[in-house]
Amino acid sequence: MPSNRIYVPEKPVFRWFKSSKQWKWLEQSAPVGLDKAPPKLKQSNTPATKPVTSAAVSKPKQSGWITFFNHVETVQKWWNMEPPPKPAPVSKPATAAGAKPPKPIEPFDIQDAPATLEGMGYKRYALWMRRWFASPRHTVVSEEQKQGGTPTAARYPTDMVDTTTLKKSDLQQDEQFKKAYDTIRSEAFLQSTAVKQAIQKMFANVQGYGQDIRPFESATLERQRIHNHYCFASIQVGSDFLRNLEDIRKNDQEKSTHTTSELEAAFGRVYLYACIYDAHVYYLNRQERLLKVTHVAFYIRAPFGFDTLPSTQEFRGHFNHKHLALATNGQWANKPVYVGDDPHARHAVYRPLFNTDFLAWADKHQQGGDFLVFSDILVPPIAPIEIVLRDKTPEDYWYEYQQEAQAIVAPAGVLIADPQARNRAINAAYAKLWLQDKRLQWAGLAAFASKQVGCGLLHASHLIAAGQANQQAAALSPYGSNDIDAVTQGAAGSSQYVYNQLALGNTTLFLDVYPLHRFFQEWGAQNLERFLAHRENLIADSARPILWPIGKQLAFGRKHQQIINAFNAIEAGDVAKSVRELADHEQLNILQPAMYNNPVFHALMRANQVSFVTGFPNGMAEAVQLTLASQCKPLSDGRTVSFSNEASADLADPKQRMAFVLKAAEQFDKLLAAPHTRSQIEQSLQVIAAGGGVK
Q1: What is the Cα–Cα distance from 316 to 326, expressed in whole angstroms?
Q2: Coil, strand or helix: which one is 338?
Q3: Residue spans of alpha helices (H) in 477-560
Q4: Do 627 and 640 contact (CB within 8 A), yes or no?
Q5: Chain CA centroid to CA 132, Å
Q6: Which residue stretches of 2-80 are H helix?
Q7: From CA 572, how far away is CA 84, in angstroms rounded?
């Protein structure tokens, strides 16, 4: 079992070494203070953009490819360790009559943390933390917004972007940065196939030749837009701060040390990016152009904030007014501790700080702003990167995204035979879209709706199995077929038909809508509207066959106005409208002709509704509802939306069905607006994204 020794950092770097002193749990309450008045709000210090010093800059659309490492890893195991033995109670020294009582425990307010960091030599970390306290309330939870990387990525407000603090000289003194910098600017990395493919995709729609591409000299492009449109690769600097804590705990040796850079401690996980600085497009022939990248800019882009994962509080360390320290046992992070024999001595007590403490302070004072830090750029000499650009048709792009969707439901070109397994793959793909970009709210709702289709498939499969068992039992009976339960057998037959129709509709809708989202993510609403009419040409291209299981019953890839309206609404920030428009497209343009216009399916849905309301036959019908969780069973906490309890209700009626869908969309939006229920929604979608749920 790990000891209760502490790790304390040397100055001026976070090189943790084990102290010979031991911690003791503090028996009396000593919470971190949140009551000190907040600092006065500060104005933005973002500098003006550089003036133009070259020809107009072309602005090609980027595919969205950026080499990101995995998102922040949880250290849940760290928190789940068994607690250390309960310490002996602190003995209070006897005091003579009239003697002064012991000094109170030294107070510590959360706003004292920057002074502690500064006193230990971590001046930039302290500066960023002070800026967070003095900023207007601004919370960023979307990974896409935090990491950027696509032309459609949401941007931080201009006054929440810091481009002045992190200098070249600061970076070049950081050992972790220097290692990453040497790797990413090496010829082996920049001339690699992956890098060339990323740049080629980024500039695939550049027309003509003779263009100078110098985004950092543009008067109209600020750093976030440059980052989203012109960065082609990234590499992690060092490792994650929370992971370092886990490494320290696992390697709890008497002489063990571990180095963490100040950047890692401040930001958690840091990336160094490679971005086009200077390039030129040359003429080769009528179909081809040469893109020559002569200079690449390297810089750090790091979001500063205190958001937290649902499964952790994200420990920041134990603080007092003089020191920062780390525990070798995760259980020690849960309460104040002290060093020495007297907890009333100055600087004896250490309080744990978590991201949740900063969020509680922000809620209390309505201040605390997540912001974005860009470092200075470094532009070293490199060997030119030369890439041939070939003209691509709109159909080429649509085919790429159609293939991406097909790979999910038909790996290696073969449709997943089990409709329930195929449904789980579809659910996961929808959930991942929303988890990557929270603006794609229809996709989040679709993950739950598709999961509910999976619940219908599960219920139908049980009825089918019951019918098969009944038939087998009858075959073994001496009375032959006269022993067959007609009700069970009838339910099994109709369930098989419903099962097939649900699977068909689920797959068809996915193959229609998923490529639309992927095209929008990488090319934006304007290009989607411009090229949408070309999508239906794929169905007649025998050289590039596509999967469309419903055949001629429903035309493939039509240019419906609801699609254009929906993605324009997303880009305009009107998420609610985008959900309404995509729901309209989903229900009226796809599912109505694919499923609900089918007279047999319509009749079976009507029978299911009557059976559910009347309760006859018992156990055969299932309620039409949507549970906004990974499970199938309804919940009583507002996460289940029901269709109707009326026997006359008709799910195949588009007006009645749209009213149900929009009610579910409204409830989904409401749940996302509240922090607690939003956390429940995110956890459920993470389960679905991992292939879970439907039970």
Answers
A1: 9
A2: strand
A3: 486-531
A4: yes
A5: 23
A6: 76-79
A7: 54
In this prediction, residue 343 carries a pLDDT of: 87
As beta bridge partners, residue 627 has 640
Task: Locate 307 and state its tokens.
Answer: 């958001």
* Integer CA distances (angstroms), 121 to 32, 124, 125, 347, in order: 22, 9, 9, 18
Tell the burial category of 452 from Cβ atoms under 10 Å away from its Cβ (0-12, 13-18, 19+). buried
Tokens for 650, please give them.
């008709």
The DSSP output letter for 585 is I
Please check whether residue 130 is in contact with residue 39, taking contact to mean a CB–CB distance below 8 angstroms: yes
Q: How much is the average pLDDT of 635-640?
A: 92
Dist. CA 420–CA 552, nearest whole Å: 25
pLDDT in tens, 551-572: 989 999 999 999 999 999 999 9
Query: What is the DSSP code (8-state) at residue 593?
Result: I
Are the C-beta atoms of 601 and 498 separated by less than 8 Å?
yes
What SS3 state is found at 481? helix
Distance, in Å, from the CA atom of 427 to the CA atom of 152, rounded to the nearest integer, reads 23
Cis peptide before 157 (omega within 30 of 0): no
pLDDT tens figures, 339-377:
888 888 888 898 889 889 999 999 999 999 999 999 999
d(CA 518, CA 429): 11
Q: What is the pLDDT of residues 244-283, one digit of tens each?
A: 555 555 555 444 455 667 888 888 888 999 999 999 999 9
CA 592/CA 550 separation, integer angstroms:
13
599 phi and psi angles, rounded to 5 deg: -60, -35
Spatial separation of the C-alpha atoms in residues 121 and 407, rounded to whole Å: 52
Cβ-Cβ contacts under 8 Å for 238 (sequence gap 6 or more): 176, 177, 180, 260, 261, 263, 264, 270
**Residues 280-317: tens digit of each pLDDT:** 999 998 878 999 999 999 999 999 998 876 555 677 88
Q: Which of 5, 9, 14 is nearest to 241 (CA)?
A: 14
| 161-162 and 371-374 strand pairing | parallel
Question: What is the average pLDDT value for the chain, to the nearest integer?
Answer: 82
Helix (H, G, I), strand (E, B) or coil at 434: helix
CB 305 within 8 A of CB 358: no
